[in-house]
Every structure is written in structure tokens, then in C-alpha cells.
């Protein structure tokens, strides 16, 4: 289990390289979170990808296989989703989610 977690975190780090020094890491939600200019964009917890989305994407991605609401307390968190392994199984799929997360963070940092 730990190996899969470490592998996902490594893959996220690689996917975030284009944003270089604007990315920081922080332990949150029982896992590893990645922040763009101080705003959480993506992360890992319990071998699931956590992604923040701008509101306009939420309804569409919730219809996708491997996507579920992020609900730690039983109540879904606004603009957050979990993506199970099948949804990030390739680097292209992972990069798509990373871009969604960066889009959300930019919307909070750049206007």
C-alpha cells in the first residue's frame, strides 16, 4: 500500500514540474497535497487522487467513471473530487487532473 502511495506522489511531482517554483507540498487531508502559489490544487490520500475543480467542471466530471465527491465528514466538499486509480492510470489521464487543479488554483490566485 505504501509503495502505491509513494508512486502516485512521485507521479504527481513529475506532472507538476512545468509549474516549478510555484508548487509547494503540504501534509493535509491525511495525505500529500500540492499547492500552486499557496492554493491546494491536487493531492493524494488513501491511494486516491484529490483534485480541486473550478465550479463549471464539477457536474461534468462527476458523471465520469472513477470520480466521486470528496466527503471526509459525510458531506461533499465544494469543488473537490476524488479520482480512483483507473482515472489516473496513465500519465495523460493524470496530467488532465493536474491541469484541472492548476486551473482552480489560478482562479483563486490570479483573479
Please tell me about this protein's structure.
This protein is of the alpha+beta class and 111 residues long. The chain has one domain: Alpha-Beta Complex (Aspartate Aminotransferase, domain 1), CATH 3.90.1150. Helix content is 36%, strand content 28%. It has 3 helices and 6 strands. The chain has helices at 2-15, 55-61, 91-109; strands spanning 23-28, 31-36, 39-45, 48-52, 67-69, 80-83. A 6-stranded antiparallel beta sheet has the order 1-2-3-4-6-5. A hairpin with a 2-residue loop joins strand 3 (39-45) and strand 4. It is globular. The model has no long low-confidence stretch (mean pLDDT 92).
The number of helices is 3
Question: Order of strands in the sheet with the most strands?
Answer: 1-2-3-4-6-5
What class would the helix/strand composition place it in? alpha+beta
Strand count, sense and barrel status of the largest sheet are: 6 strands, antiparallel
Please give a quick description of this structure:
The protein is α+β, with helices and mostly antiparallel strands and 111 residues long. It has 3 helices and 6 strands.
Feature tags:
111 residues, Aspartate Aminotransferase, domain 1, six-stranded antiparallel beta sheet, 36% helix
Architecture blueprint of SSEs:
Blueprint lengths: L1 H14 L7 E6 L2 E6 L2 E7 L2 E5 L2 H7 L5 E3 L10 E4 L7 H19 L2
Antiparallel strand pairs: 1-2, 2-3, 3-4, 4-6, 5-6
Amino acid at each position: 500500500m505504501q509503495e502505491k502511495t509513494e508512486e502516485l506522489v512521485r507521479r504527481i511531482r513529475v506532472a507538476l514540474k512545468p509549474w516549478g517554483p510555484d508548487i509547494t507540498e503540504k501534509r493535509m487531508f491525511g495525505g500529500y497535497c500540492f499547492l500552486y502559489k499557496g492554493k491546494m490544487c491536487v493531492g493524494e490520500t488513501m491511494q486516491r487522487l484529490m483534485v480541486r475543480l473550478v465550479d463549471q467542471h464539477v457536474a461534468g466530471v462527476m458523471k465520469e467513471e472513477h470520480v466521486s465527491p470528496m466527503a471526509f465528514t459525510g458531506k461533499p466538499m465544494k469543488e473537490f473530487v476524488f479520482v480512483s486509480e483507473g482515472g489516473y492510470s496513465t500519465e495523460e489521464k493524470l496530467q488532465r487532473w493536474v491541469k484541472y487543479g492548476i486551473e482552480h488554483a489560478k482562479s483563486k490566485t490570479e483573479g
